[in-house]
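Step 1: inspect the first sequence and its tokens.
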Amino acid sequence: MLVLSRSRNEKILIGDNIEVMVVDVRGDKVRLGIIAPKDVPVHREEVYIAIQQEQRLKDEAEERKWREWAERKGKPCS
């Protein structure tokens, strides 16, 4: 892990098209501003984990649906 020190209004650049700026520091809270292309998702960790869990549940439900369909048709699923 790369660890960098930045002060308020200083930036970190990631590649050619992502900027992370320290907007404010209050106590133990740091506010960050992030500029990234629209095709690059940016989430807080807890939101990202929730999205992944939701997608996994949808994928599992879809897999069950196809397995049940195959079983009704008498076709084994691997």
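Step 2: inspect the second sequence and its tokens, then contrast the two.
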Amino acid sequence: MRKICCRWSRLFIAGSTQATCRHGVSGAAIGSALRATSSNWTLPRGRPHGYRIEMASKPLRDSDVRQAAYGRLLVHAQACPDTLVIDELGLDHGACRIDIAVINGHIRGLEIKAEADTLDRLPHQVAAYGEVVDKASLIVAPRHLEAALTIIPDWWGVVVVDRGTHSGVNFRRIRAERVNRAVEPVILARLLWRPEAQAILRELGVPERDLRAPREALYQRIVSEMPLRRLAHTVRETLKSRLVWRDQPQPS
């Protein structure tokens, strides 16, 4: 888990501006991705050229892509104090997990589908993301691209990841993110731990006897007391202020 800047998405390479297909991605962009074209990424300043991740010819794994994403897409943004990134953020009490969650003025989810992955769980993941995140991007290997575009909604961004000519990991954006307008307030509230939900309700003046109600009742009470915009802000700020995640102290 690390703190990063809200401007991380500016690091993505602009996609093609040619006519788009029904998935919001140009035919040229898909063809280019399927041919595993090289990207225009430059290495972060101050990094030795040997930083490029070297791997054998085996398929890219989730861990390969995740390491490259931290080292290439997010590295320039780590100084922002008001933004948090965390791996494997649980949704709906762990029913689904966001591969990399970026939390600042939005909750953004990054889902990785590397060469060694399958798309079997993607429909369920898309539904779970759609109940909570404001924006999402799929980081996908070329072999999964066409099938994935039939599964993800048009508000998801798409970033193609492949191996470069020198065995590095390349990223290329082919579709920008849009805002999700279908967040479910109760599912969003379930990101809170019980003590956090109780503290929020206490600040709202809810009597102490009511704070002993079952956890789900607390979430329902929060939703009834707050409009969605305020709820979303409160959840984001609570997540960013946590000192402990999964029994591990938050890095300073």
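Step 3: confirm your contrast with the notes below.
The chain is about 30% helix and 20% strand. The radius of gyration is 19 Å.
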